[in-house]
Amino acid sequence: MEESSRDWKKLLLSFWRNRIYPFVCPPKHPNIGLILMAAFGLSFVMQMIWQGLPEDKLFFSKTSLIGYSFVMVFRLLALLLIYVFTVEQFEISEHHTWGRNPGLGAFFMSFLVGVPCMLISVSAHNLFIFAELKMENPIPSQLYYYVTTESSRYGLILILLVTVILPALIEELFFRGLVYGLLPEKWYLRIPIPALLSTLFATNRLEFFTFFAIGLCASFVRYYTDSVLCCSLMRIGMACATLFLSELLPTQDPQTVQNAIDYNRTVLYSSFIALGIGCVMAMVIFGQLFYFHYRQKEEDRVYDSAEGKALSIPTAAHFRLGFFLGILFLILCWAFS
Known about the structure:
It contains 13 helices and no strands. The protein has helices spanning 2-24, 32-52, 65-90, 94-97, 104-134, 153-182, 187-190, 192-202, 208-225, 228-245, 265-303, 315-318, 321-335. The longest helix has 39 residues, at 265-303.
């Protein structure tokens, strides 16, 4: 009996040391699970606070430009805080997050990617609304949005800052910088995963396909240029294209149409055409960016450059307790949105 009891104790102790403790102990490596838990955990907390705040106690409306700016700045600052903490805690070098300098030509080509990205994303938005109306489904609600039509100088500056500049810098630094750098050096991981996570972080059912299209374009730019700055330039180029091409391809406002019959057919047909043109333009520009990627890989191979090597993180390190908590917080964010 004593020997059997000792065997059981050894078995339980071995199971604790080899299975349970490594699963819950503080991580030795930066990993996607830690990032998921922190990003979606903070996002869920802010979401609950924002939804629980009584609007009559605030000096602004939650759907006003000030209200939208308030919550979006806090969400972006949360991403920046996670980025700084992770980089400092695990001493991640800049070339794994910021990438490298690909040259002036890559910067220019990345800015041009903003044009097909705008065509694809706006078309996806318009076609999604038409499909929902055609199937007589209710238009999904948005968690964070503003309905104010702002034309003042300071209002336009605030819109530019909150919807273009800050997201183009912080979101790209986090998803195409930190998240991208922690993933293995495989294109089928580094392109779709940051795009999907950035889309899910937005917690916006109405713009899911729009944000996913933007995320995919940004991930392709990051993969081909190895530069977060190129991704930011693509986002700025997309904003410029939206400003100058809005008359040719307007964004369909779901509040102005009640059913598929009321849907502007001109917008529908132009969205189909713009989607095709945007895909062709994107393939052409990405084909040019592929040469930058090819040259970088050749130089890394010849000179054995450290900039071309991914972080050495064991695969098992990503699937710890933080990973499953992050998935739980992600589900809660969408369930309560």
